Amino acid sequence: MTYRPLSHQSYDRSHFALLFQVEDRHFWFRARNQVIATVVKRLTANLPRGYRVLEIGCGTGNVLRVLERVCISGTVVGMDLFAEGLKYAQQRTSAALVQGDIHHPPFASEFNIIGLFDVLEHLPDDRQVLHALKGMLQENGILP
Predict the structure, then answer these.
(1) Which among 43, 72, 98, 107 has the fewest CB atoms less than 10 Å away?
(2) 22-44, pLDDT tens digit by residue?
C-alpha cells in the first residue's frame, strides 16, 4: 500500500476543547484509563529503572497522565500531530511532550513500551505503522 502522510485535516482540532472538558467525568474515559493503568502497571513491573514509555496520539494528555502516574520508575513521553492537543496536555502532565507525525517520529532513542490509544484505527495503513513502530522499540519492547 502507498504511504499517505497524515494531514492536519485528518482530525477536527475543535474536538480537543470538548474532550478536555468531559474526559475527567465521562464513564468511558475513566473506565478505559483504569484498564490501561492496570495493563501498563503489569507490563512495567519487571522493567529496569529508567525504562521509556511513549504514547503516540496523546492529544489532551488524558491517558498520558495515567501513564505518568503508573510508570514511576520510568520516563513517559507524549507525542501528537497537533499542537492544539499538546496545549491541553501541558495542563495535565509534566511528561515530555513532542509534536510529531507517526510516520516520521522525531526520536533517536528507543522505547520499552509504545502505546496508541484510539489512534491506530484512524490510520489508513495500520500494518505499515505497526511495522515502523517496531523499529522504535528496544529489544523485547512492547506495543500493548
Answers:
(1) 72
(2) 999 999 999 999 999 999 999 99
Residue 79 lies in a domain: yes
Q: How many domains does the chain have?
A: 1
The pLDDT of residue 6 is 47
Q: Domain containing 88: what range?
A: 15-142
* CATH code of the domain containing 111: 3.40.50.150
What's the rounded Cα separation, in Å, for the pair 92 and 54? 16
Can you tell me whether residue 90 is helix, strand or coil? Answer: helix
105 found inside a domain: yes
Residue 54 β-bridge partners: 77, 114
Alpha helices in the chain (DSSP H): 15-22, 27-44, 62-70, 83-92, 126-134
pLDDT at residue 2, as a whole number: 37
The single residue listed with the C-alpha cell 496536555 is 89
